[in-house]
Write a structure and sequence with these properties.
mainly beta, Neuraminidase, five-stranded mixed β-sheet, four-stranded antiparallel β-sheet, 1 helix, globular, disordered N terminus
Length: 268
């Protein structure tokens, strides 16, 4: 299901609210610190040190936990066969296969001089991106942990202190979300391209050249080519929604609320 993205106001204007036609297919009565999805429609639910994976019908597939590494900070399931799990407190990364079994040994960031990293994400060809606040440094490593791209003093690019909250690579572009200034965009080698002045408090998705994100005003899309902004209203009380994920190839909308997860199919 493709959401139409044409004929919407330009950025900086308040877009008209559009009802999003969705049908609830299942409710998961689980709490979550964080949720994620992959392009196959799998749902990942993080609660403390446990990661749970569900299929598109909401049935549990697998779980993973490593109590020695503590609370899971975030995951990146861009590659469902190689899911990245980041433990910020212990400065370690692990990779999991499609059944959430460990792939190889944990990556100890202290050994790479990046033990203060606050953000991590997957890169192409099994690489990784890391952001460390000590030197405002953004760095890319290949699968052999060799540095292939880096940016020092990211703060100088925007002329202010940066405190980014989310990092994502998509289609050879790297997006670093710094609330207050916008999304900083880099190429695969770390060269700065531009800043997208969107006000996003946390994470977002990039699908088909469109940014998808949720805030307390609704579910938004921003077309990176046409610079159009749209807002969609999700059925249900907005004040109970924590985050939203969409997988357009499966017509799936995943809505995280305070005490449950709702799976919806997007209708025509």
């Amino acid at each position: 299901m493709v959401i139409g993205l044409s004929h919407f106001p330009v950025i900086g204007q308040e877009p008209t609210s559009i009802p999003l036609n969705c049908s609830l297919i299942k409710t998961l009565d689980v709490k979550a610190d964080h949720i994620s999805t992959d392009y196959l429609g799998h749902i990942y639910i993080i609660l403390d040190d446990q990661l749970s994976k569900y299929d598109t019908k909401g049935d549990l597939i697998a779980t993973y936990s490593n109590k020695y590494l503590g609370k899971i900070s975030m995951i990146d399931a861009s590659n469902p066969l190689r899911v990245l799990v980041f433990y910020q407190d212990f400065g370690q990364l692990v990779f999991l296969d499609d059944m959430l079994s460990l792939i190889g040994d944990p990556i100890v960031l202290e050994e790479l001089g990046m033990d203060q990293s606050t953000l991590a994400c997957i890169s192409v060809n099994d690489g990784i991106w890391l952001y460390g606040p000590q030197d405002f440094k953004l760095i890319r490593m290949d699968r052999n942990l060799k540095v292939t791209g880096e940016v020092y003093q990211v703060n100088q690019l925007v002329g202010t202190i940066v405190e980014p909250v989310f990092l994502l690579e998509k289609d050879n572009l790297v997006y670093l979300n710094n609330p207050g200034t916008g999304i900083l965009v880099f190429d695969i080698f770390g060269a700065y391209i531009k800043t997208i002045p969107l006000e996003i408090s946390n994470e977002f998705q990039v699908i088909r050249n469109t940014i998808f994100y949720y805030n307390n005003q609704g579910f938004h899309t921003y077309d990176l080519s046409l610079f159009n902004l749209a807002r969609y209203d999700i059925p249900g009380a907005l004040n109970h929604i924590t985050s939203v994920r969409i997988e357009m190839g499966k017509g799936l909308l995943v809505v995280q609320k305070e005490t449950r997860i709702e799976l919806m199919i997007i209708g025509d």
